[in-house]
Each structure stands twice: as structure tokens, then as C-alpha cells.
Amino acid sequence: MNSRLFFEQAFLRRLPQRCRLCGGAARGIGLCADCRADLPWLPQARCPVCALPSPDGQVCGACLRQPPAWQRTRAALLYDFPVDGLIGALKYRGDLSLAPLLADCLAGNIEPGAVDALLPLPLHPARLRARGFNQAAELARPLARRLGLPLLHAAARRVRDTPPQAGLDRAARLKNLRGAFAVQQEQVRGRRIAVLDDVMTSGATLGELARTLKQAGALEVECWVIARALPPAQS
Ligand SMILES: [Zn+2]
Ligand SMILES: [Zn+2]
Fold first, then answer.
1. Which of the ligands is closest to the CA of residue 21?
2. Residues 27 and 89 in one domain
3. Is residue 159 part of a domain?
4. Which end of the chain lies in a sparser environment, N or C, as judged by fewer CB atoms within 10 Å?
5. What's 211's domain CATH number?
6. pLDDT (tens digit, 9 = 90+) per residue, 75-87?
7. How many whole angstroms from its chain centre is CA 36?
8. Tens of pLDDT along 114-128?
9. Is 213 in the same domain as 132?
């Protein structure tokens, strides 16, 4: 056991297990049974490619018209209250103890052997310095451990810091992201890779990484996200 894992586990054992939402007695990782059940879980009937609700769980029209570079999206929750608050506290207040709780919500959706390796969406080094951690890497660590998956820490780098995507239309967003990532071919070639992030909104950033991974020889790419946001200004 590495020392970081040892200290994490020792720390968790010493904490009284309190629900992070209501303060009641928590079961499992950080939530009581009622608060966990009340989370905005995504409906079972959703598009397997983009994870948005779709009748009978069929591939949705948007994914049929314009198939993304990835094969499948696995997501647990809708990006809505209180999930937005939990993810915001992890990301912007640095409450890293929320990462195992959020990862646990997704873990139940994933069957053993679904992919060969897990790749957290890399942050640009300047953003990483400013934030001090990469939330995707924090989420990936407990998930990889639980699912017994190798974690690809260094297989991809964000080589270009892209301006914020909000306000750009789809075509401009895609153009804005071209060449944002560099991938180590030998780590991804012939493998089925899951790319992990906290939230999928338009999917443009995950799509660019998926495209780069496929170009580098990845066999299949899945997107794994804790929460799915409904795309803005859906038209
Ligand atoms: Zn609770
Ligand atoms: Zn879809």
C-alpha cells in the first residue's frame, strides 16, 4: 500500500461518517441512504452515446446525425441540485474528500472489464498550478482502485489552454479545441480507454480528447462523467 493511500484510509477511518448533505448518519461513502436515494439520478432510458434522456434508451437523433469520436458515455447523475453544489465544492473550494463520494455514485454503473484503462481529463499546467489539483484525477483515483483499472496519469497532456467555451457555437467550440491535447501513443494504442471528467456539458472537450486518442490508435474510447448537464441552448 502506498503511503498516500494509507493516510487517506487512516483519515477516513477516524472521521465520523456524517452525511455531507443533511449531517445525519452516513452509510457507505459520505451520504445517508435517504439523501443518496434523493440525488437526481439519470433515468435508465438514455442515449448510450451521449447519456441524455432518450425514449427506450435508443441512440438519440443528435448522435445518429453526428456520431462523436467516443463510443459511449457513462454518467450517474443529472448536473442539478445538489450535485452541482457537491461538484462545485470539490472543484472550486478544494474539498477533496468529496471525490470518493462522487466516484462511488458512478462506480455502480460500470461492469468489470468495461475498458482497459482510465484516463482523467488533463488540465492545462497553468490551470493545474492555479487550482493546485486536477478534479478529474482526484475522481479517477478512487474509481480506478474500486474497479481495478490501471490509471493513465501521463498518457495525455493538455498542450494548449483554450479560452472559455461559453458563448461559442458548436463549430467555433470544436475549432477552438483542435490540437488541445497531446497523447503518448504507446500508452493508448490498441486499448479501450475511458476518459473521466466531473461533468459533461456540450462534450466538446471530451470529444477532442477522444478524437486525439483514436488518432493515436486507441481501440475504443468511452466518456465517464459523474454528472451530465443538459446542453445549453438546446436547439
Ligand atoms: Zn443525508
Ligand atoms: Zn445521444
1. 1
2. no
3. yes
4. C
5. 3.40.50
6. 999 999 999 999 9
7. 19
8. 999 999 999 999 999
9. yes
Domain check: are 159 and 211 in the same one?
Answer: yes
Give phi and psi for 129, each to the nearest 5. -65, -40
Strand order in the sheet with 220-228: 72-78, 220-228, 192-200, 117-120
Residue range(s) defining the domain that contains residue 201: 41-228
Alpha carbon of 159 to ligand 1 centroid (Å): 41
Which residue type, as a one-letter code, is found at position 66? Q
Question: The whole model's pTM is what?
Answer: 0.89
- Are the beta carbons of 164 and 193 closer than 8 angstroms? no
156, burial (CB in 10 Å: exposed 0-12, middle 13-18, buried 19+):
buried
Do 2 and 54 belong to one domain? no
Confidence class for position 235, pLDDT limits 50, 70, 90: very low
Would strands 117-120 and 156-158 be described as parallel, antiparallel, or unpaired?
Answer: unpaired
Question: Is the same domain home to 108 and 211?
Answer: yes
CA–centroid distance, 166 to ligand 1, in Å, is 34
Q: What's the CA angle centered on 48, arms 190 and 188, to 5 degrees?
A: 15
Q: Give a yes or no: residue 234 inside a domain.
A: no
**Alpha-helical segments (H) within the chain:** 3-14, 33-38, 61-65, 83-92, 98-107, 125-131, 135-147, 170-177, 185-188, 204-215
Q: 82 preceded by cis ω (within 30°)?
A: yes
**Both 78 and 11 in a single domain?**
no
